[in-house]
Design brief:
InterPro entries: HMGCR/SNAP/NPC1-like_SSD, NPC1-like, NPC1_MLD, NPC1_N, SSD. Its main location: membrane. This is SSD domain-containing protein. It is found in: Endomembrane system. Strand 15 and strand 16 form a beta hairpin. Strands 10, 11, 12, 13 and 14 form a five-stranded antiparallel β-sheet that branches. Helices cover 53% and strands 8% of the residues. It contains 43 helices and 22 strands. By secondary structure, it is of the alpha+beta class.
């Protein structure tokens, strides 16, 4: 509506006084100063058409006194003494036309002056004939000759000056430009005047005015009048910053505008790291070469395997692997061993009682499941209740109402290169629109009941069919011309809801202004939103019916509408949540399958399979034991969920999908380690009872299990301090689940091991222990993986040359990771959270490809008293005394650097439009009835019956704001303005554009708060959304600091993107705190600060390399990947803690200790974590959900690969370089284990259990001899005597 006025003002101003009918003869022959080419009105071409001028190629006429006064008051002092080529009727018509343009243009005095000068000169200049030439004439309905076409020769200087003064003038009510209305959105002055001169009745010029580049007659001179600049030196013509860029102060550059530091096209960060690594590596290689030449005669062979020379070597070698041949002298470790020994012994002795108590407690805590709930509300998941964005959203919703809901349809051809703008597509679009408007739910709810209708009953439907008021009967054969006219000037073709439809909103896939080549129609149904759930439930009900219809439409199931050749994308407010739930239901099957694969592997891998004896195989199987371990994992999860559900914490999908994986990751390796250690003890010490063996197993491995569990629990618990609900709740659930899993493993699982060992000794079948069979005696052999580690891998990795290569390679990997970290993307593309076949994926793709308008952003201003002059100056822009730092001025300046601010469109500034509404020069706006001063006059009320606001006030209305209303007067006029509907006579009325933009206080005598609406640039990716959020808050902070007002920005997406403002610092804090906790616990349990630092360093390197892998694999940083990085800390500890403790507890040189640790627990770590996770991760690769493929499959694959490499390759190398020393000692009593079995027993052990039949290889013999040495107590003196020889093994 408001825009129609602006169109009329241009067209009416053009109609100013120039017009006539068709003829082919040139009417004007005399072209010299003092001559006219037309004058006065001679009728119209149609009965109700506009008046057209008479051809008049004669001298200019001296105006009478009344006409001269009218001319001077309208066109300026230049007509005070001159003749004129116009009549009084023409001048009055000119005044009427310019009054319509005044509300939009007069805010910029320079543009307004040039606008008046242009049409005054055209209509009344006494030298008309020097720049005008009538090219066609015709006859009016009165049979009089009239002008129907003429040429207007304008100089480049004048045209450019006129255009430049008006090109940036805003029409705030629509967040648009006046040029869209008076010049059809022209980008050049010729386009502007061409639009003005185009013949378009009833709203445009009644005859054609051409603006030739060169004079076709050779006698005309270009009109070269004086134009006023928007930054004119004469202050009475100077425009405000909002309407004139040269007036605006230069904003200081933001950090985002500073060019990044680069060296040869590479970032300074990456270049520096690469340079340092290269120089360091080169120096190290140089030193190694020099040293090698100097000491060429020395033995530089590292830790290498050699063939056994004598029994003494074997005895010492096995001494390194035997946990009974030494006792820890570190007090904490010794106490832990003592405690776990007694605990294991008791649990094994009272196995069934321990299991019953354990799972009784699990059942008790699991009663909390009765309060189980799943949180699916994205706001409650990702936004802290007391977060800034949540608080601001609440303020906005309570004062201005929540942001409206939308349902959108995007229609294009399946062949994306075809234009959608054709008659058949339009007719189908009319039918689709009619069907959607007629949709009715079971309760009878229709679109009319829920849609937004700001000024009347008409729904806000933004559709190309709106150019014909959504009425197919208005769509005629001349649709193409009508379409071009409407897209060129939307105010000419208002839809039912009377607001112009910008082509960018309803069309997509076109370049520039070539709207006929558009590839897509975009239809938006705007639906009311409310804080009242009853209202939103009704809207949700209609949206579900709408989605059903759209599904039928897409699949060509709607009778009468053939959509086979169409690509139709659609969405509603309810779509995303519905599709996310579908995604979760799909994902859960994949997750469960992944877990089942890991469960099955863990259960089978624990057993021993003697293929030559099936009976022995079904006895030695550990499937039941493995399943009991898995059940313990599930029990720990159940306990955690039950406890926190009882406390009122709802579970999230991340918890449901990730925590089982996490607990399995940190729990399965403990199962493998305990089982393998127990089997090793039974093999090496067959004379021990099951209870004793279980106690010693837990005493040996319990401290390292405690180390990893305690580190992970503390790390996760600290994560609970994060304000992001999804992350903090996950951290709490994870910490509890990991700790309960640890407690159950060192109690109930030890009991299960004891029961399984008893079953095996009694030759009972696994899974069916009630059946006892006669099975051949088990043949104890060393596993293939431990044997490979002992014979090949351990000696290789501890070779001195290999160590150097490993360190150099991993430092290089660290350098690469550090170089990649700055390239890590932030955000979560919502398309990834959807199933790959979801209709929403296609919708988001089409929205990105076709939609050319960004989301609206509202700057809410509080603590400004708009009833005072000072308060008005803090928020206005279009007056000479407005503050340079006012919200309106700052927004305009930021808009002019949209590539930085992401603010694209002019702001809607209510204070400017309100105060200009009071301007008495705009006689059609603020008028009160004389007989009832409390009521505004309507557009058709007689002028004599109305008083124009501020017409007789002293001081009067002026651009300096002096005399404008304050206090009660301000509130009186404001109330009337907010009730006035805009129309073509007064587009500045405030009800439609600002009805919900101003919130009064409870007394109604002050403006409590108000908002200033603008639009972001189109948001194409997560970077744009995050940058838009950051810059909007930067702008608000700047205005708040400079004006003292409280300003904050609000847009519907801000609440979800606040997390990304500090997610990098949050990630760093979380990971650092987690690693510090790992270091402290490691140092406390192991008693070695050096080893603790090495473990923390390796975990840190794993984290860096995983982040680098995220960059390479296209995984961005968000809440999900942050949770996975915290998980990475836990899994990294699992890769490191067991090997680190085993090496600390072993004796001998650093190489010997590490070798023993690798043989003892390295294979368990590899099979327990790496292989188990690989199988589970492999299943995740087949998920339909992109989010699982990206954030779980890719990240977990990186975590396992990087963690295994660092834990099994780098960590042993670093530990072998440490010289650890113990400083405290403690007598361990029963833990000083020794075996005093006779050599005969050892021979029987070797003959009965270690030999396979009558055949044995050399390796078997060597293994027998090594195991035989386990039973010997080597004196301390012998250790030093043989250390040099064993070191070569």
């Amino acid at each position: 509506m408001a825009k129609r006025t602006s169109l009329l003002l241009v067209l009416a101003a053009l109609a100013v006084g120039l017009l006539l009918l068709v003829s082919t003869t040139t009417a004007s022959n005399i072209h010299k100063d003092g001559y006219c080419v037309m004058r006065d009105n001679c009728g119209s071409k149609r009965t109700f058409g506009k008046q057209l001028p008479c051809p008049f190629n004669e001298p200019a006429v001296e105006p009478d006194r009344e006409l001269r006064e009218l001319l001077v008051s309208t066109c300026g002092a230049s007509f005070e003494h001159s003749k004129a080529c116009c009549s009084q009727d023409q001048v009055e018509a000119l005044i009427a036309s310019t009054k319509q343009a005044s509300p939009m243009i007069s805010a910029c005095p320079a543009c307004w002056a040039n606008f008046l000068n242009f049409f005054c000169t055209f209509t009344c200049s006494p030298n008309q004939s020097t720049f005008l030439n009538v090219t066609e004439t015709g006859n009016s309905t009165d049979k009089k000759a009239v002008v129907t076409k003429l040429d207007f020769l304008v100089s480049e200087q004048y045209g450019s000056g006129f255009f430049d003064s008006c090109k940036d003038v805003k029409f705030a009510a629509t967040n648009g430009y006046v040029m869209d209305l008076i010049g059809g959105g022209a980008k050049h002055w010729r386009d502007m005047v061409t639009f003005m001169g185009r013949e378009r009745e009833p709203l445009g010029s009644p005859f054609q005015i051409d603006f030739p580049v060169e004079d076709p007659t050779g006698v005309l001179k270009p009109f070269e009048g004086v134009t006023r600049q928007c930054n004119d030196t004469d202050v009475q013509y100077r425009c405000s910053c909002v309407d004139c860029l040269p007036v605006c102060p230069v904003l200081p550059p933001t950090p985002d505008e500073k060019l990044p530091c680069t060296v040869f096209g590479v970032s300074c960060w990456g270049f520096s790291l690469t340079f340092i690594y290269t120089v360091t590596l080169g120096a190290a290689i140089g030193m190694f070469v020099i040293r090698k030449r100097i000491s060429a005669a020395k033995d530089l062979i590292g830790f290498e395997p050699v063939r056994r020379q004598d029994e003494e070597d074997d005895e010492y070698s096995q001494h390194l692997l035997d946990p009974d041949q030494y006792a820890s002298r570190y007090v904490v470790s010794a106490l832990l061993q003592e405690w776990f020994y007694h605990q294991g012994y008791i649990c094994a002795k009272h196995a069934w009682r321990t299991i019953a108590i354990s799972f009784g407690l699990v059942a008790f805590f699991s009663f909390g499941w009765s309060r189980f709930g799943v949180e699916t509300d994205p706001v409650k998941l990702w936004v802290a209740p007391d977060s800034i964005s949540a608080t601001q959203k609440t303020i906005f919703d309570q004062n201005f109402g929540p942001f409206y809901r939308t349902a959108q349809v995007i229609v294009s051809y399946k062949n994306s290169q075809d234009t959608i703008v054709d008659e058949r597509s339009f007719r189908r679009l009319f039918m689709i629109n009619d069907k959607i408007k007629a949709l009715k739910t079971e309760r009878g709810v229709t679109l009319q009941d829920i849609c937004l209708h700001p000024t009347s009953d008409a729904c806000v439907i933004q559709s190309p069919t709106g150019y014909w008021e959504d009425d197919i009967s208005r769509f005629s054969g001349s649709w193409k011309n009508e379409f071009e006219a409407c897209t060129g000037n939307p105010a000419d073709c208002l839809p039912e809801f009377q607001q112009p439809l910008k082509p960018d909103i309803i069309l997509g896939g076109f370049d520039g202004e070539e709207y006929l080549t558009a590839k897509a129609f975009i239809i938006t149904y705007v639906i009311q939103n409310s804080v009242n759930e009853t209202v939103t439930d009704i809207a949700h009900e209609w949206e579900l019916r709408y989605l059903e219809f759209m599904d039928d439409l897409v699949h060509n199931r709607i009778e009468g509408i053939n959509t086979e050749d169409l690509r139709i994308s659609y969405s509603s407010e309810a779509s995303l949540e519905i599709e996310l739930n579908k995604s979760s239901n799909t994902d859960i099957r994949t997750v469960i399958l992944s877990y089942l694969v890991m469960f099955l592997y863990a259960s089978l891998a624990l057993g021993r399979f003697q293929l030559s004896s099936p009976r022995r195989m079904i006895v030695d199987s550990k499937f039941t034991l493995g399943m009991s371990g898995i059940f313990i994992v599930l029990a720990s999860i159940s306990t955690s969920v039950g406890l926190f559900s009882f406390l009122g914490y709802k579970i999230t999908l991340i918890i449901a999908e990730v925590i089982p994986f996490l607990v399995l990751a940190v729990g399965v390796d403990n199962i493998f380690i305990l089982c393998h250690e127990f089997e090793r003890r039974k093999m090496d010490h067959p004379e021990e009872s099951i209870e004793e063996c279980a106690g010693r197993t837990l005493g040996r491995m319990g401290p390292s299990i405690l180390l990893s569990a305690l580190s992970e629990t503390i790390a996760f618990a600290l994560g609970g301090m994060v304000t992001m609900p999804a992350v903090s709740v996950f951290a709490m659930y994870a910490a509890m689940a990991v700790w309960v899993d640890f407690l159950l493993q060192v109690t109930a699982f030890i009991s299960c091991i004891a029961l399984d060992a008893q079953r095996t000794e009694e030759d009972r079948i696994d899974c069916v222990p009630c059946i006892q069979i006669q099975a051949p005696q088990a043949i104890e052999t060393e596993g293939a993986l431990p044997a490979w580690v002992r014979k090949y891998y351990g000696p290789l990795i501890l070779n001195s040359s290999v160590k150097k290569i490993v360190i150099a390679a991993f430092l290089g990997l660290l350098t690469v990771g550090l170089c990649l970290i700055p390239s890590l993307e932030i955000g979560l593309d919502q398309r990834l959270a959807l199933p790959s076949d979801s209709y929403m994926v296609q919708f988001f793709n089409d929205l990105d490809g076709y939609f050319r308008v960004g989301p609206p952003v509202y700057f809410v201003v509080q603590d400004v008293d708009a009833t005072t002059r000072h308060g008005q100056q803090q928020i206005c822009a279009r007056f000479s005394t407005c503050s340079d730092s006012s919200i309106a001025n700052v927004l305009e300046q930021e808009r002019k650097r949209a590539h930085v601010s992401f603010i694209e469109q002019p702001a809607s500034v209510w204070i400017d439009d309100f105060l200009h509404w009071l301007n008495p020069a705009i006689e059609t706006c603020c008028r009160f009835r004389k007989n009832d001063p409390t009521k505004l006059c309507g557009p058709w009320d007689d002028e004599d019956e109305c008083n124009i606001c501020y017409a007789d006030k002293e001081p009067g209305w002026n651009i300096s704001m002096n005399g404008l209303p304050e206090g009660e007067e301000f509130m009186k006029y404001l109330g009337e303005w907010l009730k006035a509907n805009p129309d073509e006579f007064c587009p500045l009325a405030g009800k439609a554009a600002y009805g919900d933009a101003i919130k009064l206080n409870s007394a109604g005598d002050k403006v409590k708060m108000s908002h200033f609406r603008t639009y972001h640039t189109p948001m194409r990716n997560q970077h744009d959304f995050i940058a838009g959020y950051k810059n909007a808050h930067r702008i608000a902070k700047q205005v708040s600091e400079e004006t003292g007002a409280t300003v904050f920005p609000y847009s519907v997406f801000y609440i979800f993107f606040e997390q990304y403002v500090d997610i990098i610092s949050l990630t760093i804090r979380l990971l650092i705190v987690a690693m510090i906790s790992v270091g402290l616990v490691t140092a406390a349990v192991l008693g070695s600060i050096k080893v603790a630092l090495v473990v923390v360093g390796v975990v840190g390197m794993i984290m860096v390399d995983v982040v680098g892998a995220m960059v390479v694999m296209g995984v961005s940083l968000n809440a999900i990947s942050l949770v996975n990085l915290v998980i990475c800390v836990g899994i990294s500890v699992e890769f490191c803690s067991h090997i680190a403790r085993a090496s600390v507890e072993a004796e001998g040189s650093p190489d010997e200790r590490v070798f023993g640790a690798l043989v003892e627990v390295g294979s368990s770590v590899f099979s327990g974590i790496t292989l188990t996770k690989f199988l589970g991760i492999f299943v995740l690769a087949f998920t339909r959900s992109k989010i699982f493929e990206v954030y779980y499959f890719r990240m977990y694959l990186a975590i396992v690969v990087v963690g295994a490499l660092h834990g099994l390759v780098l960590l042993p190398v670093l530990l072998s370089l440490l010289e650890t020393e113990r400083t405290s000692s403690l007598s361990l009593g029963s833990l000083v284990w020794s075996n005093r079995s006779s050599s005969a027993n050892r021979r029987r052990l070797r003959e009965g259990r270690l030999l396979q039949g009558n055949e044995s290889s050399d390796d078997d013999v060597e293994a027998d001899d090594v195991r035989e040495a386990v039973a010997q107590d080597l004196p301390r003196s012998q250790n030093s005597a043989t250390s040099s020889r064993v070191g070569r093994r």
